[in-house]
Design brief:
The chain contains two helices and no strands. With 72 residues, the protein is mostly helical. The protein is elongated, with a radius of gyration of 15 Å.
């Protein structure tokens, strides 16, 4: 399967949507850390940031290869 610009745009939208959702979780985790749950708050921030990066890499790989690994 070749490169499809429409799929690339859809994937970019998915990346942005995921990042926005996860950034909300980062804010919640930062609030937890400020309230005294430093370990849980920092852990939540790291998890959300990792989820953003993983989702972005997976979508980029999908755009480049034309394959959806989740569908396989």
């Amino acid at each position: 399967m070749g490169f499809n610009p429409k799929d690339a745009i859809d994937s970019a939208k998915d990346i942005a949507t995921n990042a926005i959702e996860k950034s909300g979780e980062i804010v919640e985790s930062a609030a937890d850390a400020l309230k005294g749950d430093v370990s849980g708050g920092v852990g939540g921030i790291i998890k959300s940031a990792t989820d953003i990066a993983t989702g972005s890499v997976d979508k980029a790989k999908e755009i480049i290869t034309g394959k959806d690994d989740a569908a396989e």
